[in-house]
Automatic annotation (TrEMBL):
Transmembrane segments: 339-362
Signal peptide per UniProt: 1-15
Taxonomy, superkingdom: Eukaryota
Name by which UniProt lists this protein: Bulb-type lectin domain-containing protein
Keywords: ATP-binding, Glycoprotein, Membrane, Nucleotide-binding, Signal, Transmembrane, Transmembrane helix
GO terms, biological process: recognition of pollen
Length: 570
């Protein structure tokens, strides 16, 4: 840091906030506004190897820095040390590694004493000399992707261009945002955003793409269509949309039925009924979709945009696709194959079912004769309460728990049941103890062992139990203290936003539907904060757990270590 300050002192004769005709910004050099609110220099975006001249917050810094303005967003450089940001003929220019200009303010300045100054409001101004007050060019008149206080949206009559904000191509959500600095969390927080919701963004999913709220990536291609650019979709840019898997030329066509809430702009036809509407679209080469509502036939000849799925209350639209790409066509084809295979193997299946039935009957008979034949027997926590008379007959106290006498229902076997007193410690030590005792051969040690280990289970002070994944979901969905889910040794010293991201990833990864689970690239983007996702739904399998105190406990007659320890949850 000292070297950086020294470099700035040597390079910038007018101060750390100014670029004059005799100096430039190169490599790791930067200029900083007088109040140290903003900083300007070369930066690298994300995982890219290219460099840009940009401006970011200095005083309210974050990691990575919050970029608010970019000069050469379309023309990056490869080597920041051989590139320069300087004044040339009265203009601010960027020279690349070959000393060729790739960006310029492109204004006319009569004086050779032009200077550029970065101000505390995030405005980079170009002035015609030290005594000049009015800027001949300023960055607030040329916003890139961030709307800073003082910036205006207007039509520039001098350049005949509109001043616009355009999102970064690699950012998933192209919404326009204003943010404020939250001193308590040392982070930027959104206090206004437009459009209000993601689905309001025009053509977000591109042509023949549909917005699905139940999907992690939101945008998806209609059945019979595929991504126009796979690489862009992997980066979260869906604007390229989708194309048909099979060209409709000389192919048998049919219609895909979808339910949508909104209808794009279209033309209408006068027909008598829905059948005529279907035939009219089928016979028209340019027709891509149709809707028949209230004796009105609407058709779409061009690309279809802004489709929002609503299977419950949406209107029915029919999209033209190749017959072989329809899901129902694939089902019919597979059903024919299944029918043939089923007929050929029918006798074999009956034979297998007969053998399985016979085996189950024999197993039940054997189970009726003995309950401890080297196999596992599952007990609920309530069963052990009954066997031990609610843990009333204490035999002694061991490491991390007490040992109780119990009588198993059925064969009246007498067993010793060890109950952990606390789940905050002892799991590893308890299993280690069982492993040690399991190697001892003694006449006074029964051959049956009871081991109850609960992972993903939390015990409250009233001895009630809760399944941790469901407990965590309840805390987050109810707006509770998410930091309370962390290890107590961390003393809640963690970033709430990062913990929330981790929670979302964890729950998206265990969704019941495989298609709803994120890919590894999506997981990486979510954890890095480059992909925003909504709160995931609670997986159905977590609801199968009884939150009272019923948990499986396994008993095995073998005294060997390898066969004693079995966990009822993983």
């Amino acid at each position: 840091m000292g070297f950086l300050c020294l470099s700035l002192t040597i390079c910038f004769s007018y101060g750390a906030d100014t670029i004059s005709a005799n100096n430039s910004v190169s490599g790791d050099e930067t200029i900083i506004s007088k109040g140290e609110m903003f900083e300007l220099g070369f930066f690298k975006a994300g995982n890219s190897s290219k460099y840009y001249i940009g401006m970011w917050y200095k005083k309210h810094s974050s990691n990575p820095p919050t970029i608010v303005w970019v000069a050469n967003r379309e023309t990056p450089v490869s080597d920041r040390f051989s590139s320069e940001f300087k004044l040339l003929d009265g203009n601010l220019v960027i020279l690349n590694e070959l000393k060729l200009p790739i960006w310029s303010t492109n204004v006319t300045v009569s004086s050779n004493s032009a200077i550029a100054v970065i101000l505390d409001d995030g405005n980079l101004v170009l002035r015609d000399g030290l005594n000049s007050v009015e800027p001949v060019w300023q960055s607030l008149d040329h916003p890139t992707h961030t709307w800073l206080p003082g910036a205006k949206f207007s039509y520039n009559k001098k350049t005949n261009k509109s001043q616009l904000l355009t999102s970064w191509k690699s950012i998933d959500d192209p919404a326009l945002q204003q943010q404020r600095w939250m001193e308590t969390t040392k982070q930027w927080g959104v206090f206004w955003t437009q459009p209000g919701t993601r689905c309001e963004v025009y053509a977000l999913c591109g042509a023949f793409g549909i917005y699905r709220q139940t999907r992690l990536s939101y945008c998806d291609c209609l059945a019979g269509f595929e991504h126009r650019s796979e690489s862009e979709w992997n980066q979260g840019d869906f604007s390229g949309g989708c194309v048909r898997k099979t060209n409709l030329n000389m192919q048998k066509t049919d219609f895909l039925m979808i339910k949508v809430t909104n209808m794009p702009l279209n033309s209408s036809l006068v027909v008598k009924n829905a059948k005529e509407c279907r035939i009219a679209c089928l016979n028209s080469f340019s027709c891509n979709a149709y809707v028949f509502v209230g004796n009105n036939c609407s058709v779409w000849d061009g690309e279809i945009l802004n489709l929002l799925e609503d299977n419950a209350n949406g209107k029915t639209m029919y999209v033209k696709v190749s017959s072989k790409d329809l899901p129902i066509h694939k089902k019919k084809k597979s059903s024919k194959v299944t029918m043939v295979l089923g007929t050929a193997s029918g006798v074999g299946m009956l034979l297998i079912l007969s053998l399985v039935t016979l085996a189950l009957c024999m197993k039940k008979k054997l189970a009726g004769k003995t309950t401890m034949d080297g196999s596992l027997v599952a007990f609920t926590y309530k069963d052990l309460q009954i066997a031990t008379q609610n843990f009333s007959h204490r035999l002694g106290v061991g490491g991390f728990g007490s040992v109780f006498k119990g009588v198993l229902h059925g064969d009246s076997s007498i067993v010793a049941v060890k109950k952990l007193e606390s789940f905050s410690q002892g799991d590893k030590q308890f299993r280690s103890e069982v492993s040690t005792i399991g190697t001892i051969q003694h006449v006074n040690i029964t051959s049956s062992w009871v081991l109850c280990t609960r992972r993903n289970v939390e015990q409250y002070e009233d001895s009630s139990l809760a399944f941790v994944p469901s407990l965590a979901a309840d805390v987050v969905l109810a707006g509770g203290d998410i930091l309370s889910l962390l290890d107590s040794r961390l003393n809640k010293e963690a970033c709430v936003e990062q913990v929330t991201r981790i929670f979302k990833v964890a729950y998206w990864c265990i969704q019941d539907e495989v298609d709803s689970r994120p890919s590894m690239s999506q997981v990486e983007k979510i954890l890095e904060g480059n992909l925003e996702v909504k709160m995931p739904p609670i997986p159905q399998f977590t609801k199968l757990y009884d939150y009272s105190s019923k948990h499986l406990v396994f008993i095995e007659s073998s005294s060997t270590v390898s066969s004693q320890v079995h966990e009822n949850s993983s």
